[in-house]
Amino acid sequence: MNRRRWLIKLLLAALAHRTGRTLLLLSVLAMASSLATALGVVSLSMGKRVSEEVRKYGANLVVVPAAARLEVGSGGLNFGAISDPAYLDQGRVEKALASGGLKAERSFHLRGALRMKDADVLVEGVNFADVRRLFPWWQLRGGWPGPGETVVGSDLAQRLKLKAGDTVELTGTAQTLKLKVSGVVVTGGEEDDLFFLALPELQGALGLPGQLTEVRLLVSAEGDTLKDKAAALQPLLPDAKVREVRQIARTSEGLLAKVKLLMTLVTAVVLISAGSSVTGTMSTTVLERSREIGLMKAIGGTRWEVLLIFCGEALLLGVVGGVVGYLLGSGIAVFITRTVFSAAPEFIPWLSAVSLAVSLFLALLGSVGPMISVFKLDPVRSLRGE
């Protein structure tokens, strides 16, 4: 017991005696662990932030029917292809999404033509609650529709001279709908030429209960690539085609990959620099303390006990550096995420273990070479100053 107390007292006295060098090592270890903590928090926070931003682009996977196609032509002449109307079974799609375990927001669509006066108009049936979540860029003049109401695209509204409050009559193969225009939507895309109404109403008008022409999915940008997720879903829907929306796929995966690569490179540079600094400082300490080491061995201290003192110093510095680094890194992460990315950082308790592990790893790794020198040091030659 006395021997253990002596070793602890010697360890603390050695650190206190070299206050400047001890503070330097603590600063290096705290800097490395704080940057690892800060980059970890920023990386994880930004991964979710990027996912949230990518949501603004809309769906990134689309499920469409595998339509039957008939090539028309003779000899070297090709007049194109004729496609029979094809639909997706809504119940089967819902079952496939549930059994596939794909975490995604979805929007069911049925597109068809209804008769208005003496002309056909394109109409799309949707669930407006899903549309409001998946297509936040839609600009609606008026209100979102309720039962018996419709939304009309801005270009179509201009051609037909329609406005909110007007009533339209749309005739399908199964029934005629009399609908009130609740609003006019502006998207800047093909939606501006369509009528939109509740999916069940259009299914009833066209005589296509439970049928869809398209399913749009917004899956998370994290984890597997969109290509992998599409490939996993495809076998569950053999009569459909699962396609990526290329622009969205590349944007989401590219942004996340660049953020992670940047964080990894910066962390690697910091760790290498910190490890080199710790090694150099510890090596200098061993050279300065060679006579002290030789004296401890000469008065009965074994090589392992002397080595234990240096190992204990490294462990103590690593623990203190890790704790300080976690607190400092959390503060840096809060500053970066709020001022640079305008986002709220997440509190991630397990990063404290990462910070501690980084500090201990650097402290012990940087002390390996000096510890080997301590173990091999000849007490007689060190006392002679050789």
UniProtKB/TrEMBL annotation:
Compartments in which it is found: Cell membrane
Membrane-spanning segments: 261-287, 307-336, 348-375
Alphabetically ordered keywords of this record: Cell membrane, Membrane, Transmembrane, Transmembrane helix
Domain ABC3 transporter permease C-terminal residue range list: 266-379
GO molecular function, one term: transmembrane transporter activity
Keyword Membrane: yes
GO cellular component, as recorded: plasma membrane
Residue runs in coiled coils: none
Membrane topology label: Multi-pass membrane protein
Pfam families on file: FtsX, MacB_PCD
Tagged with keyword Membrane: yes
Residue span, MacB-like periplasmic core domain: 25-227
Signal peptide segment: none
Protein family per UniProt: Belongs to the ABC-4 integral membrane protein family.
PANTHER family: ABC TRANSPORTER PERMEASE YTRF, MEMBRANE COMPONENT OF TRANSPORTER-RELATED
Protein name: ABC transporter permease
Organism: Geomesophilobacter sediminis
Lineage of source species: Bacteria, Pseudomonadati, Thermodesulfobacteriota, Desulfuromonadia, Geobacterales
